[in-house]
């Protein structure tokens, strides 16, 4: 091959053929000046011509609204318009942008939000917001050509963009109805007060405003008279409720605006320009020993390398884990790796040099060792131990026993037995783990996406040998979490580089390494027997489940403990035994994923309930109503539920839908042979917060001298809406309007610990702390003013006006002493739910609050192909009190979408599905219409009666779908996901048996 | 040192190709995923400056699809009904974002067993135009894609066009079987083209993808359909026709058994769709 010529003039465009739109692209290995237009402005960048356009936009032009989720065209998060057409910016060379006109999300608003952006906010179509820019860009193009699109047109246009939070239905509605939000010219839109937004604009100031609003929506129960007078900014109606009416209203989410403008900063969006790039060397084997060669020599050979770091460089204890007593995971493996994708070394270097770093000669020698991937092999006698201190590779087990299940089953009129197997499920948030770290004096600052800042702080400090007050965690916006961002991932890694080099260090996981190295939902192998008496009352149940917990503990103990507590479902089960075992393998680490094992166990129980109902000849929904928990019932842990049990209300709310759906299916089926419709139902219950463990949240709120209410909102909002919901609760407890609130983020240097965003605990636990803090603050003000509880508060500029009866007092806030934090009044309250430990038989009071729900799935099975088309999901959920009904709906729809994925398509296979085209999650065409029925049976403990919701919503979906498939086909698929292969195999097997019986 | 070149004429491009080994960059939708986060180590010939290679033209004998023609270009170009299967496949290639830049020819060069574009071109009897600085040759599509990720491209050659012989008669349909609605790699897919004369099938072209290393025409099915009346009975003939060309593997998308079973059904559906609307009586005859 000829040597590359420095000039390579033979490929310069000939003058006569040069097309002006190509711009000046200089060939060669080096860089080229590439000129194009972005959002109407001319730009020129000097980059290698093959650099991905997404990277150019984000890193050269700092237009970080364009997201990178996979770098492969599988997720669509990087969608931009090039000369008007949507393309994946991650698949376009910078050279192809030359002369083109590029539109990014930052170009959609023009002084005020576009109609589509406003519609997204009004509909709650943005949750975490990571996919929102791409959806907005692609939908803008659609609306340009098709102003009033049909649902199918919207789906076709957005089919290439994955969203993991919303379930897509609100996105479809927002696009279809965008026309209603065309800015009108007559509304006198006052400018918002200076400095009130955007919230979280830089991830560090951590201030979010509560902003004001109403518009073309009316159906959430908050009447016009209950709202503030329309106040607009950016042309947006924020639907702000008036004082005292925040709870139960659906204001536009307080952190919403930056999610639609592209201003929101996620983990990878604020890397310092001088940060070292960090690359993680990972094990290519499930189990292997390794030894390094000459690392320094290798680093010296590669220009721009600053250092290679291994376990030997870790100054603290190289062992982390979310549950202290089970902590077992090294930040960098020592001598051998226990799973494919385990981090073994870090390479840090200058950013540009790292782009060109060839790792093929990295000096590491691997020695592959035998591995175990199945729990059955791990449990075999003589199986090698994955952790020497855990006999039989058993991490831990959970156990609940009540009454005498054997006798109950022996005496049951009807008993059914079954087995269900589930697969690894990947969280597949569209934002891979990302963040940067730097030294601020002697304090290590880690700016990254997370669900649990204080846990990150403690584990990072432990690994790096720092006192916890020398580690500061600054949470960025988090582009989806669903449980996996509870565990530390890159925090100790970038922290180590920053600590060792003194320079900022930045890292964004590739999709591949995010999928390989972070946690999954536990695969389960379960079996159970349930018996009932002739009247259709369940008398006993025995459940046993092995959960593949992978190479390290993570949340395995939580799954093992939660499952036996919940495996009965929300049904009275007087005689019961359940055991859940977390078993180590060399597979991916199983951790927390929306439901902690309960979704798996519920598939087991709810499919058996259908079988029982069938044998008893009782309608399936009626059977559940006969058995569901009621006020005064005792759970399988012996906890007496005095009040607030709403499962019966949920099931009753479904009755008319159940009748209609069955009739529809019968009609269809009588006219079709090759396609059959089915209807299924399933329930859920879920205890909110930690299982029998302390679980406190602390909320600080105060009044600043300028008359703003400052809320230290430490409950990380990963899209579910805690920024809004916690503020709504606090506002009504305090008695001041939502719009006066400004939020401080969950930065560990700024806000007290509100615990982790998991276990459906934030609305309940942090909400309760916010309620207490709001009331305490109110109490302080009232006492200062020497008035009674009945007084009302009002903020009037930098004064509080207090009225009681005829009397009015005005407190000039500027005249009061201000504390170090700038507060003139402040309160801080902690709430820890009252629970009791479980005894040896799992008896006790594991949770203070439970939430309930039930869902109907309607679907159509193509009998010849085994494919499933979902028709509708009807979901009734008892949330106690819907603090924000729109956000509740968003949680329900998003949870259902994940349940659909688990039921029908999601199966993570290490080594084979480590990307988003082999690992399938639902697209916008896979989620059917969802009808939500909000049931509000107040809980005596929860704030304003509220219960948790986030995890409940996913639990019934998969069993309802499996029950509907069985209703349609007569086939119960016993391994999920119920892929076309498995459904069709079941149909063929059933047909074969039928033929055999016919012949016999 | 590696080279990057973005020529603006085909002659320049072919001259460069003659100088050594190059990786060709067109739409980039396979190029970048294959690259991942690795550094570039191959010479890259960016053909996106070759304006002459984009678009669909007609000669006396052929429809000529230039090598840079995108799936979106194809969807929007008026073509006879025999191309409907290919156009339907075009809408299933990734997403609109992919279709807007990915080229039809690139789909062939990538030579994935699950390439959505191949069955639709096979039923059109398409051939591939390969050019080097010294020669031009035309290969029937089955002779171009040799196996999983293997093509007949020789050093110094590039695909410059796909040619579909005229008249491209009949009507056609495409059926894709996947585990979700959008952005999905096929478990199996079928393109079918039928010419019906006087109510009877006079020509049948059926091709299946994702059920063998390279998409294949089904000669046994095609033979079985010839001469049959255009009615629901076509499905019956397919049920018993040999499909010996297929040798599916089991992968994360489906088992081999499932593929063989399901593909027969979607062949029937594609054929019936290609055959056009029939009244209920005709379908019931199946």
From TrEMBL, chain B:
Keywords: FAD, Flavoprotein, Oxidoreductase. PROSITE patterns: FAD_PCMH (PS51387). SUPFAM superfamilies: CO dehydrogenase flavoprotein C-terminal domain-like (SSF55447), FAD-binding/transporter-associated domain-like (SSF56176). Pfam families: CO_deh_flav_C, FAD_binding_5. InterPro entries: CO_DH_flav_C (IPR005107), CO_DH_flav_C_dom_sf (IPR036683), Diverse_Substr_Oxidored (IPR051312), FAD-bd_PCMH (IPR016166), FAD-bd_PCMH-like_sf (IPR036318), FAD-bd_PCMH_sub1 (IPR016167), FAD-bd_PCMH_sub2 (IPR016169), Mopterin_DH_FAD-bd (IPR002346). SMART domains: CO_deh_flav_C. It comes from the Bacteria. GO terms for molecular function: FAD binding; oxidoreductase activity. This is Xanthine dehydrogenase family protein subunit M. It comes from Mesorhizobium jarvisii.
């Amino acid at each position: 091959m000829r040597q590359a010529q420095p000039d390579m003039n033979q490929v310069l465009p000939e003058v006569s053929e040069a097309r002006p739109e190509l711009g000046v692209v200089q060939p060669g290995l080096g860089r080229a000046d590439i000129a194009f237009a972005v959002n109407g402005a001319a730009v020129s960048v000097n980059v290698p011509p093959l650099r991905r356009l997404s990277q150019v936009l984000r890193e050269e032009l700092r237009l970080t609204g364009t997201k990178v989720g996979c770098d492969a065209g599988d997720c669509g998060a990087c969608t931009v318009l090039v000369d008007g057409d949507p393309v994946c910016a991650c698949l376009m060379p910078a050279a192809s942008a030359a002369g083109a006109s590029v539109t990014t999300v930052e170009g959609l608003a023009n002084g005020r939000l576009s109609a589509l952006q406003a519609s997204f906010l009004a509909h709650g179509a943005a949750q975490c917001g990571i996919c929102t820019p791409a959806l907005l860009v692609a939908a803008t193009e659609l609306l340009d050509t098709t102003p009033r699109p049909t649902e199918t047109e919207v789906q076709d246009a957005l089919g290439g963009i994955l969203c993991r939070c919303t379930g897509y239905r609100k996105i479809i509605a927002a696009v279809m109805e965008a026309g209603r939000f065309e800015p009108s010219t007559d509304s006198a839109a006052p400018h918002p007060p200076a400095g009130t937004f955007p919230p979280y604009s830089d991830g560090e100031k951590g201030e979010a405003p509560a902003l004001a609003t109403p518009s073309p929506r009316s159906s959430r129960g908050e009447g016009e008279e209950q709202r503030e007078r329309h106040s607009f900014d950016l042309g947006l109606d924020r639907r702000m409720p008036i004082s005292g009416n925040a709870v139960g209203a659906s204001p536009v989410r307080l952190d919403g605006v930056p999610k639609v403008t592209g201003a929101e900063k996620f983990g990878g969006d604020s890397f310092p320009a001088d940060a070292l790039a960090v690359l993680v060397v990972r094990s290519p084997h499930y189990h292997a020993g390794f030894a390094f060669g000459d690392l320094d020599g290798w680093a010296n050979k590669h220009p721009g390398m600053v250092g290679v770091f291994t376990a030997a460089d870790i100054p603290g204890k190289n062992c982390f884990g979310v549950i202290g007593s089970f902590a077992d995971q090294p930040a960098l493996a020592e001598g051998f790796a226990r799973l494919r994708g385990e981090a073994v070394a870090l390479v840090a270097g200058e950013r540009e040099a790292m782009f060109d770093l060839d790792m093929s000669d990295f000096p590491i020698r691997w020695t592959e060792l035998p591995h175990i991937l199945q729990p059955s092999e791990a449990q075999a006698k003589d199986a090698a131990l994955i952790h020497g201190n855990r006999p039989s590779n058993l991490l831990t087990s959970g156990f609940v026993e009540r009454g005498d299940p054997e006798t109950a089953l022996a005496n049951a009129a009807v008993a059914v037995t079954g087995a269900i197997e589930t697969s690894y499920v990947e969280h597949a948030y569209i934002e891979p783990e990302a963040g940067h770290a730097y030294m601020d004096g002697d304090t290590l600052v880690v700016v990254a996406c997370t669900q649990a800042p204080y846990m990150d702080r403690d584990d990072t400090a432990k690994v790096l040998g720092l006192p916890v007050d020398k580690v500061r965690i600054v949470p960025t916006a988090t582009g989806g979490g669903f449980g996996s961002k509870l565990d530390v991932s890159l925090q100790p890694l970038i922290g180590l580089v920053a600590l060792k080099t003194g320079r900022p260090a930045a890292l964004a996981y590739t999709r591949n390494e995010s999928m390989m190295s972070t946690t999954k939902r536990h695969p389960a192998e379960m079996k159970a027997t349930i018996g009932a008496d002739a009247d259709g009352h369940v008398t006993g149940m025995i459940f046993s489940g092995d959960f593949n917990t992978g190479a390290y503990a993570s949340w395995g103990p939580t799954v093992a403990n939660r499952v036996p507590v919940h495996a009965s479902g929300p049904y009275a089960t007087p005689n019961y035994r359940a055991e859940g075992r977390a078993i180590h393998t060399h597979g991916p680490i199983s951790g927390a994923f929306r439901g902690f094992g309960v979704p798996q166990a519920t598939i087991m129980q709810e499919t058996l309930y259908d079988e029982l109902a069938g044998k008893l000849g009782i309608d399936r929904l009626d059977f559940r109503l006969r058995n569901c928990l009621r006020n005064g019932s005792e759970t399988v842990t012996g906890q007496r539920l005095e009040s607030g049990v709403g499962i019966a209300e949920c099931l009753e709310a479904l009755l008319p839908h159940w009748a209609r759906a069955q009739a529809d299916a019968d009609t269809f089926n009588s006219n079709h042979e090759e396609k059959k419709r089915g209807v299924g139902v399933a329930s859920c219950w879920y205890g909110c917060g930690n299982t029998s463990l302390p679980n406190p949240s602390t909320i600080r709120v105060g009044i600043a001298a300028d008359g703003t209410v400052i809320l230290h909102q430490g409950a990380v909002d990963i899209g579910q809406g805690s920024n809004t919901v916690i503020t709504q609760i606090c506002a009504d407890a305090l008695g001041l309007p939502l719009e006066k609130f400004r939020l401080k983020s969950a930065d560990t240097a700024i806000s007290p610990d509100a615990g982790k965003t998991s276990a459906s605990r934030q609305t309940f636990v942090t909400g309760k702390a916010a309620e207490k803090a709001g009331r305490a603050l109110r109490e302080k003000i009232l006492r200062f003013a020497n008035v009674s509880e009945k007084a009302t508060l009002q903020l009037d500029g930098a004064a509080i006006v207090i009225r009681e009866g005829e009397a009015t007092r005005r407190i000039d806030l500027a005249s009061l002493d201000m504390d170090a934090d700038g507060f003139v009044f402040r309160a801080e309250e902690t709430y820890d739910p009252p629970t009791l430990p479980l005894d040896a038989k799992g008896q006790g009071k594991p949770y203070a609050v439970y939430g309930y729900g039930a869902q109907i799935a309607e679907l159509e099975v193509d009998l010849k192909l085994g494919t499933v088309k979902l028709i509708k999901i009807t979901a009734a959920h008892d949330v106690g009190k819907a603090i924000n009904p729109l956000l509740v709906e968003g949680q329900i729809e998003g949870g259902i979408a994940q349940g659909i994925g688990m039921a029908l398509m999601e199966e993570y296979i290490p080594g084979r599905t480590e990307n988003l085209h082999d690992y399938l999650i639902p697209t916008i065409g896979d989620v059917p219409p969802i009808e939500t029925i909000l049931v509000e049976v107040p809980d005596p403990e929860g704030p304003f009666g509220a219960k948790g919701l986030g995890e409940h919503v996913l639990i019934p979906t998969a069993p309802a779908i499996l029950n509907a498939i069985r209703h349609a086909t007569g086939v119960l698929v016993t391994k999920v996901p119920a892929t076309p292969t498995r459904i069709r195999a079941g149909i063929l097997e059933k047909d074969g048996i039928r033929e055999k019986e016919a012949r016999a | 040192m590696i080279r990057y070149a973005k020529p603006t004429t085909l002659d320049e491009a072919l001259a460069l190709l003659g100088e050594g080994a190059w990786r060709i960059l067109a739409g980039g939708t396979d190029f970048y995923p294959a690259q991942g986060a690795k550094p570039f180590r191959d010479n890259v010939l960016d053909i996106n400056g070759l304006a002459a290679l984009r678009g669909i033209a007609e000669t006396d004998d052929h429809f000529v699809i230039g090598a840079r023609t995108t799936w979106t270009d194809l969807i929007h170009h008026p073509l006879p009904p025999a191309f409907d299967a290919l156009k339907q496949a075009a809408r299933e290639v990734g997403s609109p974002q992919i279709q807007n830049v990915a080229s039809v020819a690139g789909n062939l060069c990538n030579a994935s067993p699950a390439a959505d574009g191949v069955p639709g071109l096979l039923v059109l009897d398409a051939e591939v135009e390969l050019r080097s600085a010294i020669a031009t040759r035309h290969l029937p599509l089955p002779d171009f894609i040799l196996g999983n990720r293997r093509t007949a491209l020789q050093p110094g050659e590039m695909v410059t066009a796909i040619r579909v012989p005229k008249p491209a008669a009949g009507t056609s349909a495409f059926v894709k079987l996947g585990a979700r609605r959008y952005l999905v790699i096929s478990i199996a897919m079928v393109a079918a083209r039928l010419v019906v004369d006087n109510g009877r099938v006079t020509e049948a072209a059926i091709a299946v993808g994702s059920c063998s290393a390279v998409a294949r025409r089904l000669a046994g099915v095609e033979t079985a359909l010839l001469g049959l009346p255009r009615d629901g009975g076509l499905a019956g003939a397919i049920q018993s026709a040999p499909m010996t060309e297929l040798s599916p593997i089991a992968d994360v998308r489906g088992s081999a058994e499932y593929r063989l079973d399901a593909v027969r059904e979607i062949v029937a559906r594609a054929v019936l769709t290609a055959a056009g609307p029939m009244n209920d009586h005709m379908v019931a005859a199946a």
